[in-house]
TrEMBL record:
Gene, per the UniProt record: metG
The EC number(s) this enzyme carries: 6.1.1.10
The protein's name: Methionine--tRNA ligase
Subcellular location: Cytoplasm
Binding site for Zn(2+): 144, 147, 157, 160
Gene Ontology CC: one annotated term: cytosol
Amino acid sequence: MRERILVTSALPYANGPLHVGHIAGAYLPADTYVRYNRLAGADIVYVGGTDEHGTAIEIKALKDGVTPKELVDFYYEDMKTDFKNLGISYDNFSRTSLPVHHKTSQDFFLKILKNGHIERKTVTQAFCPKCNMFLADRYVEGTCPACSAPDQKGNQCEVCGKVLEPIELVNPKCITCSTTPEVKETFQWFIRLSDFQDELEVWMKSNKHWRPNVVNFCLNWIKEGLQDRAITRDLQWGIKVPLEEGKDKVLYVWFEAVIGYVSSTKEWAERMGKPDAWKDYWLDGKIVHFIGKDNIPFHAIMWPAFLLGYGEYEGRKWKLPYDVPANEYLNIGGKKTSTSRNWAIWLGDFLKDFPPDYLRYYLTTVAPESRDSDFLWEDFQKRINDELNDIIGNFVHRSITFAYNNFDGKIPSLDKSLLDDDDKEAIKNMEEIGTKVSDLIKVFKMKDALKEVVSFAKSCNRYFDKKEPWKLVKTDKAKAANTIYISLELAKTLSMVLNPFLPFSTEKMLKEIGISKFVWDDSAKLLLEQGKSLGKPEPIFSKVPDEEIKRQVQKLDNPAPMKKTLVKKEEKPMIPFDEFAKLDIRTGKIISVDDHPKADKLYVMKIDVGEERTIVAGIKSYYKKEELIGKKIVAICNLEPATIRGVKSEAMLLAADDGKLVSLLEADKEMKTGAKIR
Ligand SMILES: [Zn+2]
Ligand SMILES: [Zn+2]
């Protein structure tokens, strides 16, 4: 039976561009793993998306002078493009602002609540008297109480990693106005993680195949005793708590973001036209979460706790993560990547200067799998020039070129009776490399897997050099043909086993050999068609010159200032008064409100604007039915009727929309219906 696997990569915050540190941690290794498994015939789905809620988003939007919605719309597109250009091959790249995610998260909340693992508690929270609001995590900055690092945010210390509550900070300040916050009483819902303490400990100890750094981190955390954690907050931007008493609160982003993997799988299933298919993976598959180490507690402790707390889904248990291959950090030039200090190599910039496979190659060779590692421009140059170009690219290119020039551009024939020991050894290496590489990819050792490929490529070059086909072709053409046939088979295998790492260039390499489709097992076979024409050989890689590296180092030391999020504002033309006067705008009253039979977010309402009209309005997420009935509203009454999902709408309500909230315009209660607005 085909192995059924669901792979996820951490959802990046949609509040800034991607940098190479992100890529090395959660995306490139996941993509390599997924590409290998697809070739090996697994039933595998790879999902991700942007994390679009939380104070990190609100604060960046505030700084850039855009709405949170504008910010996340911008970065969703930006990241999607970057991922695509790097060849990160998601089956679905979703967004946590989509209705499917809001619904799924609210379902998790209600289900865990019903099962008794969520409770309401009175809490004291940081409150800014000047801004007149409760200050959720990042709205407060101060000194870390554990390690005394200054200027830490109220959710987690960046220096020592301690997870914090804003009021724990020493010398706290409101980030908006620098006022020292007061401590005030309110209430929030908490998840009782302690309910899962024993079960999680037993499970964690059974995860013998996990990376030891992840297991040890979690066991230490569990040993300290799992604390109840707030899963709601007083914010506007986010997923509403689905309870009347919580209507001014949203689900805490740490609670809902991980649920985004389920939502993204649902969206994928819907798009594939098999809406229930997501269940096969979540209830009966192998789940693998690729993350950076800062995400370990959320994926390896809290997320499993939510899944346990949810209980059964349609009589089946949720699968706990099969593995959480967390990577350590990738530093840049010996220093930790810092977006705030603009010490980073931005993915978009990189891809303007180099082919994507150069980054994929280098980042795999320095993958921070078991300890922090370093991106060094000089090292990058050396790896690309000395390995990718001189060993891998060179072997493929010289084999094809030789055949092209000496065998009429065709694959020469193989005479098995003439095989000598060197030929046989080369074929044996070819038959074995696929398994060697896949055994390492399966246990997430991408760096070692790529090392195997490089040493295979070296052995291929040694074979070619030893056989000296340039001499042989003059003295013994049949033996030269054998050498070149075998070399082309080696080049084919090299391209195939490299494909999960370097999808763009290996596709070109295989095309020159005449292969467009293949499966992993083909890498172990002699399968080239003798006499078949080869594509015109072109060098696949080229060396990175010294000047280019100098330019990059300079750019890193003197980065261009961070740009603000630029949101294209629509040009709104001025209209003459006569045009405006044509609008028939009236006061009205809402008489009845019903759900739209075919759309989740729409109401069908009857309004009285001097006469009765039916209208369809997308305000269901903002108003309950009982809040609407009897409301004195304002409507445009002479727009052409529009049929919205099968229901004819005969007027349009006027409402304000700031990207977060939608608010209907109202007239005073005493105003009669049908009054003209001028
Ligand atoms: Zn303030
Ligand atoms: Zn600290």
